[in-house]
Design a protein that fits this description.
Length: 97
């Protein structure tokens, strides 16, 4: 199950990254674009890391606060999930007595 989720997040991140690059290319050509709703769907369903990296690398949708903040938050969530799935110990809140 863990391996499946890791692969899913990787594939969706790659897909979201490619979508951001394609949409930026279409924007430069003033051609038909990928709807923002579809970019968000790809980011929400596992592609948050790729969407954020694509946004930064392609300098696409960086003027939209909702994309800057939303994609960053999704990327952080998916990074934390990947670290958990890979067994990396995460900081916890411990109460000292």
């Amino acid at each position: 199950m863990k391996e499946t989720l890791i692969i899913w997040i990787g594939l969706m991140s790659l897909w979201a990254f490619l979508m951001m690059g394609f949409d930026k290319n279409r924007a430069k050509k003033n051609a038909y674009r990928i709807p923002e709703k579809n970019l968000w769907i790809a980011a929400l369903f596992g592609g948050g890391i790729g969407a954020y990296i694509g946004m930064i690398l392609f300098r696409h949708k960086t003027r939209h606060t909702s994309f800057r903040v939303g994609f960053l938050m999704l990327a952080l969530v998916y990074i934390m999930l990947l670290l958990y799935l890979l067994g990396v110990p995460l900081p916890t809140t411990r109460q000292f007595t």
